[in-house]
């Protein structure tokens, strides 16, 4: 199947170690050079170069950060650069600044000499640094195929320690290996097919839960439902004498939100009706008098309930009278009554307009 355990030293590891030892000065130079933000690892490989030379770069797993994997890719890339440029100095420059820049240096003797001096300085400094030894990376390798949640390795395979897994697998950058992506990781225990089936089963459950959570978030956003971490959902049963505006003011929410949460197209409510209210946490419930509520409550007559409800955003220069002229049979007083406002309006304000089904602007 896909999972073949490799014990002991890894194929090609000794060649990669020799390349790193001979080019350790480039690792030093790359650590000093200012490079693009998308380059990563000791060889500062871009995602495109990494993938071209066999590395895996996905969310949650980036083999550019693994010294041994990235050195293998860098070794192949350097060989291709040398074959292209036919000069070790230019190949070194290309590793740091890219092939296009190295081509320009090839035709500039002064720049070429400066780079020779810089490379000599890096080589002198590299001799005083401790080299990376790949012996620390020679653990069991097991190619995995996602979806896998990394922390499930700890709970599914007995005797594993999550901190150790992360320490010997620097390519693990997140919580999750996406579906279809493969990863070569190091473990002290074998992963057989039975364990992989359990890992996939756990990932399937997690993915389903995450999908349901995402769907809930989308529905909440579409319906303008507040974040559960900041608001408490309650059910309010309408009593005799209640008006919608009084309920909104009592719980410190807007009238438009209260109507949207309950799919109300007008301000009409009935005794015994249950209303959903999302109350901001830490906000004391306000005491609102009937007079205050009526003063700010929009009023819709029974003969207007079947009209089409539209929202009008106030533009610069608008007045209630100029807006009303756009809608036959509607007056400025109607707009004020429906919205519970006076004649003062502001740019960007949303107004409720109830138009007769046969009357369109």
How would you explain this protein's 3D organization?
A hairpin with a 2-residue loop joins strand 1 and strand 2. The protein has helices at residues 13-22, 24-32, 47-52, 67-85, 88-97, 99-105, 109-126, 152-156, 162-168, 193-222, 244-250, 255-261, 290-296, 320-324, 332-339, and strands at residues 57-58, 61-62, 140-145, 148-149, 176-177, 182-187, 231-237, 274-280, 308-313, 350-355. The radius of gyration is 34 Å and the shape is elongated. The longest helix has 30 residues, at 193-222. With 361 residues, the chain is an alpha+beta fold. Helix 4 packs across helix 5 (88-97) and helix 5 crosses helix 6. The strands form five sheets. It has a two-stranded antiparallel sheet. Strands 3-6 form a two-stranded antiparallel ribbon. It has four domains: 13-135; 139-220, no CATH class; 231-296, Membrane-bound Lytic Murein Transglycosylase D, Chain A, CATH 3.10.350.10; 305-355, Roll (Membrane-bound Lytic Murein Transglycosylase D, Chain A), CATH 3.10.350. It has 15 helices and ten strands.
**Percent of residues in helices:** 40-55%
- Shape descriptor reads elongated
Round the Cα radius of gyration to an integer and report it. Answer: 34 Å
Number of helical segments?
15
Biggest pleated-sheet summary: 2 strands, antiparallel
Unreliable runs: 1-9, 287-295
**How many E-type strands?**
10
Strand percentage lies at 5-15%
Side by side, the strands of the main sheet go 1-2
> What structural class results from the helix and strand content?
alpha+beta
Q: Mean of the pLDDT scores?
A: 82
Please write the string of helix (H) and strand (E) elements.
HHHEEHHHHEEHHEEHEHHEHEHHE
Assembly status: single chain
Spatial gap, N to C terminus: 68 Å
Count of the separate structural domains = 4
């Amino acid at each position: 199947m896909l999972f073949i355990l490799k014990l002991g030293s890894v194929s090609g590891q000794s060649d990669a170690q020799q390349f790193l030892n001979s080019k350790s000065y480039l690792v030093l130079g790359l650590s000093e050079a200012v490079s693009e933000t998308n380059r990563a690892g000791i060889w500062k490989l871009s995602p495109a170069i990494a993938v071209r030379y066999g590395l895996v770069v996905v969310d949650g797993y980036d083999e550019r950060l693994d010294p041994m994997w990235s050195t293998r890719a860098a070794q192949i890339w350097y060989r291709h650069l040398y074959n292209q440029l036919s000069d070790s100095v230019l190949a070194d420059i290309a590793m740091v600044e890219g092939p296009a820049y190295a081509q320009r240096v090839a035709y500039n003797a002064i720049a070429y000499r400066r780079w020779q001096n810089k490379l000599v300085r890096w080589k002198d400094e590299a001799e005083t640094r401790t080299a990376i030894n790949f012996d620390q990376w020679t653990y069991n390798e097991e190619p995995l195929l996602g979806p896998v949640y990394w922390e499930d390795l700890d709970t599914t395979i007995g005797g594993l320690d999550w901190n150790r897994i992360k320490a010997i697998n620097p390519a693990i950058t997140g919580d999750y290996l996406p579906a279809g992506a493969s990863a070569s990781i190091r473990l002290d225990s074998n992963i057989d097919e039975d364990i992989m089936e359990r890992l996939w089963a756990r990932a399937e459950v997690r993915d389903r839960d995450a999908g349901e959570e995402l769907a809930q978030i989308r529905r909440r956003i579409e319906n303008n439902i507040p974040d559960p971490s900041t608001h408490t959902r309650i059910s309010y049963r309408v009593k005799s004498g209640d008006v919608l505006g009084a309920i909104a003011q009592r719980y410190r929410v807007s009238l438009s939100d209260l109507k949207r949460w309950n799919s109300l197209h007008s301000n009409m409510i009935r005794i015994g009706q249950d209303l959903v209210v999302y109350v901001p946490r830490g906000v004391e419930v306000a005491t609102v008098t009937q007079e205050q509520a009526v003063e700010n409550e929009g009023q819709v007559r029974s003969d207007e309930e079947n009209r089409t409800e539209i929202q009008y955003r106030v533009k610069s220069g608008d007045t209630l009278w100029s807006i009303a002229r756009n809608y036959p049979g509607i007056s400025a007083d109607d707009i004020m009554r429906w919205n519970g406002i006076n004649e003062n309006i502001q740019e960007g304000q949303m107004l409720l307009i109830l138009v007769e089904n046969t009357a369109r602007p």
